Amino acid sequence: MRTHAADASSRNKKPALEIVLKCDSDGSIQAVEGALSRISLPEADVTIIQSGIGDIHKSDIQIAETGSRLIAGFQVGVETGTEKLLGECGVEVRLYDVIYRLTEDIEIIAKSIIPHVPEEQIIGTARVIALFKSSRKGIIIGCDVLSGHLAHGQHFRIISAMGPVYAGTIESMHREKDVIQKAVPAQQVGIKIRNFNRVKKGDLVESYKAVPLREIRQWKPRGEIIRIV
Question: Domains (ranges, CATH) in the chain?
């Protein structure tokens, strides 16, 4: 039986799928560990917290509880009478006969635990060309629209040389004295900003919208034995 030291520094940086591995021989352990080490995910790790030879026993379930509550078994069985303990501990056993299917399945599970940050689509950009005092708590920024479009109700942010400095919603836009709903390239518009006055000429304005993510069902241990064929 081998106990694998966890890499604390990498665990702090990104999520890890921590598994117990049981195989039919030492040669199989080396082959499976080698295959799992080739799973390369920039946003998640696959870590073997313990590996051993032979069928899966109650002691393996207890070790799996300290990790992601997953036991991967390659060409092994499960000790009789462990089903109740699996359910009580919420540990899942997945059994494989082919290394390729094992690594493919583990990679899918690892991908499912990655936190997914909503993506954004840039709708329009503009450059701040003038500043007008509006009130004690706000200003109007004069913008030259560069690309796409700016529209009432859009989310937008102001980006200085040091990075984003403000984010809000376009509540109103004016072109000269007229209230407008949309501005396109080559047009100059005024956008009112509340409670912020650190905008500078030359800053970039970006309007954007959130892009819905493709739903990915996160894996959770089911407290049972599953054979992957």
Answer: 2-116 (3.40.50.10050), 120-209 (2.40.30.10)
